[in-house]
Design brief:
mainly alpha; 2 domains; 5 helices
Length: about 100
């Protein structure tokens, strides 16, 4: 989606779309393996699940955001990409809550 978050994660490698232009954009990406590879590398290098979960938790707590996409202190998305979305969300939430002492 063409929004600030997508631009931050994907940068120049990204292809930005609206709901109406999504089918054409997906077909373009499928036909261009080097584009798929560039996007995958960009996301793996910048998008950190733990950092994003921590930033959302801080936001929910009314604290200032601290997300830094270039931070290498957390687990890269490549290490958890086989986890289904729902499991990932529960895992990230539980990890952040445990880290903060909210749950044991």
């Amino acid at each position: 989606i063409d929004c600030a978050f997508s631009h931050e994660v994907l940068g120049e490698a990204g292809r930005y779309f609206t709901p109406d232009s999504l089918p054409a954009m997906l077909n373009e990406v499928r036909r261009t393996p080097e584009m798929t590879s560039a996007l995958r590398d960009r996301v793996r290098g910048r998008y950190q699940w733990e950092a994003v979960a921590e930033a959302y938790l801080r936001l929910a707590e009314g604290k200032p955001g601290t997300y830094c996409p270039t931070s290498r202190q957390s687990t890269p998305v490549a290490e958890v990409e086989s986890v289904r979305s729902g499991e990932l969300q529960r895992t990230a939430s539980a990890a952040m809550m445990k880290k903060r002492g909210v749950m044991s």
